[in-house]
């Protein structure tokens, strides 16, 4: 990275849009140079949630599909920083999606893990991703999990509803033999657990998961009293014994 390229990175970090524009107009600069962490200028613009600067960089030839050394695209970074407008712009420009980074997290997994402090942005990003035509909602994730496992784990009713309605086959075992509903009851997400019972005909209330534990055992292990009450009301076997 030469001095002019380093200056460009500095201007992006400081959100000096006008100076970036003037520097790019002068030409003779490689806009796609990485820094020491592999970040391109569009990674830094999205981290700052600066959608106008992101647009300017893309129009000047920044590679929208570039990834850093952690295999994060600008979309990963935008989501991590709850930058809704940047997410919208990147999707409008047809950025490549379904990218798994070095932490084994896709764009949608990062969105599901966003803090509830940013609930409005989180919900909007999840809707944008799940409705994006190129997004593969059925892809197999680490540990043979799928997005229904994650939706149940994080208690995201919107995504869980969409997935179980459109792709009921996603209610399947992961590597440890847990079904998505096991994650819902373990975390006490009763509305999502109820959703699974409503949408899956003849769902076994004593369905075994990891370690041959039933849903009731998982709920009891976390002292999820409301969940225990829900499961018992649906006929869970309170006298079940594990077969090790």
From TrEMBL:
It holds the Pfam family Ank_2. Keywords: ANK repeat, Exocytosis, Membrane, Neurotoxin, Presynaptic neurotoxin, Repeat, Target cell membrane, Target membrane, Toxin. InterPro entries: Ankyrin_rpt, Ankyrin_rpt-contain_sf. ANK repeats lie at residues 37-69, 70-102. Gene3D superfamilies: Ankyrin repeat-containing domain (1.25.40.20). It is found in: Target cell membrane. GO terms for biological process: exocytosis. One of its GO terms (cellular component) is host cell presynaptic membrane. Belongs to the cationic peptide 01 (latrotoxin) family. 03 (alpha-latrotoxin) subfamily. Homotetramer in membranes. This is Alpha-latrotoxin. It comes from Leptotrombidium deliense.
